[in-house]
Amino acid sequence: MSTTKELNRSLGLRLVVVVVIGNIIGSGVYKKVAPMAAELHSPGWVLICWALGGLITLFGALSNAEVAGLLADTGGEYAYYKRIYNRFFAFIYGWSLFTVIQTAGISSLAYVFAQSLHSIGPIPEVLPSLAQVSLGGVFFPFADLNVKLTAILLIVILTWINTRGLIAGTGLSTGILVLVFAGIFLIIFLGLSSPEADWSRSFDLKTTSNTAVTFSGVFAAMLSAFWAYQGWAAIGFVGGEIKDPHRNIPRGITIGVLTVILIYLLVNATYLAVLPIPALEEVYTAGNKIAAIEAVKSFWQTGGLFISVLILVTTLGCTNATILASCRTYFAMAREGLFFRKASSLNEAQVPANSLVFQCVWACILVLSGTFDQLTDMIIFAVFIYYGATTLGVFILRRKMPDAPRPYKVWGYPVVPAIMVLFCIALFFNTIIVRPREAGIGMILMLTGIPMYWWFMRNATKQNPSAE
Q: What is the C-alpha separation between 229 and 250, in angstroms, rounded?
């Protein structure tokens, strides 16, 4: 093991932006336009919901950027919450990352990667006779076991790559991101220049069902968009490895989120220009189709393989970026005695390899536990609790530390952070109503942090009786 106790500050602004974008662009850009179309029945309103979801995400990102600029450190919100709230709340957040938010994100992305690989070349079935075996009728660990084992293999391989060093991990993310950008802009160019494209249709606010668009419909559609925007806050986890973090984290978050919003609006306008709403609704009803693949096939008959490979590369990149960033929080917790002690060590490459291993094991278990939709619904429910807590921290820190130097102050204060807090509260209760099972599972996993906090604190006291 390395005798060096501190992480290397090796990431400049360019790599900060790469990590931000790499953690966001995953499966949502290809899949979520279909459920949104089925909910709203109007292409114009689908684009509005992509814009609104991006706006709310930007409000959260701008609020987070002020906090990050003031308190930047390894662990992200875990480090921030100790200053804003207390050690217990910070631990519950870190434990939620481990049990639900980040590990389930890794699992769901790896799952889509495996599905895409299966669509290109069928993966042989594994133990099909056990597919209906369940745990309480909720979890079916052996269903689609061939896909799940492929996802697990991907997680293991990417974890190993990231144990070789931070530059190795970000280098892979940079190369993948270049390919993803090239592929997405090729879709936009070919799609909008094809004879099948009707650019005006993308902005048509009329519904095919001849019914009015409701507030609940808009809210439900935005939930789909939020999965596509999820992941931007992960840059805070590697705050201890960023050069001049108090400036580069706020700038990197802002540049990254604005870039993604622009890309999402362009590519979804393309989908809507080449596929009418009934066709997208059919994709959603089928369940086993991906909207992006059907859209590309409409103007490029042999483009199915291209888009399948692009989805493969995109989910590979996002899975890698999430694995790279997430384990740093558990490393920060372990150094304080609030996580498994072995996770506090660095290897020869000055990487928290043991923290990566703990993350890998639990993410693989989550792959076996459920489906893609179960995992993503749990993530969105859990993560918006903490988006709200961080945004509320803007108000608290302005009172606690009014004279502290702030490299960045959130635009539109106090209106912008207030809107974000209120939206997080609304989403929390809405998810409990419309997705009670996923909300319940997510809440139970997060609340297991209460006895674990007591256990870690007791062990820390035994090892250091003078510790408070």
A: 17
Pair 390, 64: CB distance under 8 Å: yes
The residue type at 110: A
The alpha-carbon radius of gyration of the chain (Å, integer) is 22
**Which CATH entry fits the domain spanning 13-376+440-463: 2.30.110.10, 1.20.1740.10, 3.40.140.10, 3.30.1060.10?**
1.20.1740.10
Q: What are the structure tokens assigned to 169, written together? A: 């991990």
- N- to C-terminal Cα distance for the chain? 29
CB 95 within 8 A of CB 445: no
The Cα–Cα gap between 461 and 456 comes to: 9
Reference 99, options 372, 438, 332, 365; nearest CA is 365
Around Cβ 242, how many Cβ atoms within 10 Å? Answer: 27
Phi and psi, residue 300, nearest 5° = -145, 95
pLDDT in the model for residue 77:
81
pLDDT digits (tens, 9 = 90+) for 248-272: 777 888 888 899 999 999 999 999 9
- Report how far residue 103's alpha carbon sits from residue 362's, in angstroms, rounded to the nearest whole number: 7
Q: What is the pLDDT of residue 11?
A: 64
**Cα 142 → chain centroid:** 25
Residue in the block written with tokens 């799609």: 191
